[in-house]
Protein 1
Amino acid sequence: MITLVTGGIKSGKSSFALNLSKCYIKKLFIATLEAIDNETREKINRHKKERDVGWETIEEPVDIVKILKSNIDNYDLILIDCINIWINNLIYYNINMSEQIDNLTDFLPMYQNNAEIIIVTNEVGQSIIPIDKIARYFINCLGITNQKLATIANNIYLLVAGIPIKIKG
């Protein structure tokens, strides 16, 4: 089963995803955020404290599929947090975006029966169109990725002001 959790920044997505995972025993958290400064280190530490002791964490900014392939049979639940940071990383490291997105969306449906998969992402295209070309590219890439993930997801939740709204499943 694939569950996509989406919403705006600070809408409660990560907390909701953690709440969905409470009944599982063997859990893997794939973190895409890199500790590049004090702010990101603090955010990583805050997120680690929110997780109970049943979690193993792997920090992987780029090759999510590699981590999934080597771990999908070892866990009851895998939580990927988050796709928007992953897209940012792919842009930053100048990695083939289409190939990575296709690898992920091709892999997940084949192995969804091996483990419950929860994916956290952001909705960022509901506001002013940025003047900056790279910001527009990011929004477009994330929007396309979210659409592809939504197509393969069994369940989708949209978080608005901390309130989950089930929009698929």
Note: Residues 125 and 140 are 8 Å apart (CA to CA).
Protein 2
Amino acid sequence: MPVLRKTEFQGEVVWLGHVPAGGSLQAGAVETLDLSLSGDRGARHEGATRPSCVRVKNLYPEGTEIRNVRQLSILSAEEMEATAAEMGLDHLDPRLVGASIVVRGIPDFTYVPPSSRLQTPGGLTMTIDMENRPCVLPGREIEAEAPGYGAAFKPAAKGRRGVTAWVERAGVLNLGDRLTLFVPDQRNWTP
């Protein structure tokens, strides 16, 4: 019996971005991502390992080498639209929030269970780590292009920031590709 259950939910890839290493959080729009087991080649979050950050400070001293489960930032087009509306913007540009992938069609996307998989028909598979909590960095990028709106990002994006993910099976991802959602076949944790 499989431990990952195929759902009826599919998302369409509506935007792809590459965030170059060593620069700002801003992504450049691309039509294809050639994803290796280390993620997006030459990207800010590429690598099998990474130095630990504030998100795991209760586990490790900052800078400790750990597994990189933050290779990709995947957001929902629907949730981005809701965030933009709450901020008072007509549109929230994915490049300003450091998005790798924007999908349309999977409801409540930010709360898809950890360890779920997104898979293309060709077999490229990405494993969801967890919710990507909003931070101030996208707000700075937004503020530079839309003065007066940057500070609104973090509260407006709460519960809508998408997920972080890592590449489980390498492959090419294209605009328009369909991603099928597989979720862990287990009951919710009830301590």
Note: The domain at 4-184 is CATH 2.40.33.20 (M1 Pyruvate Kinase; Domain 3).
Protein 3
Amino acid sequence: MKKLTMYQYSKCSTCRDAAKVLKNNGYELHSIEIFDNPPDAETLTELIRLSGLELKKFFNTAGEVYREMNLKDKLAGMSDQEKIALLSSNGRLIKRPIVTDGKQVTVGFKIDQYQDIWS
């Protein structure tokens, strides 16, 4: 069986929908609760590299903590290392779910993207 690691929040309906699609596509999931166990800076750096996405795509811009910290205005003045350290310090800042097989990474859940990459 194909295995994936999924950083998620179990009470998030989007994460549950993503997990359902992945399981229906024959994947076994190793789920990590992102709020309790956010990826460390080294892991995040590798996930970002594998994803091919800009670092800002890893921020949960719709989240309460992002807004409370006023990060929309602060991120531009931060280095990538500072941004990664911030993400690794608080799983609520990270867009979810993050799914990886160790070779590729998806961030968030878009059904068409999942069909292209994880089917």
Note: Strands lie at 2-8, 27-33, 98-100, 105-107.
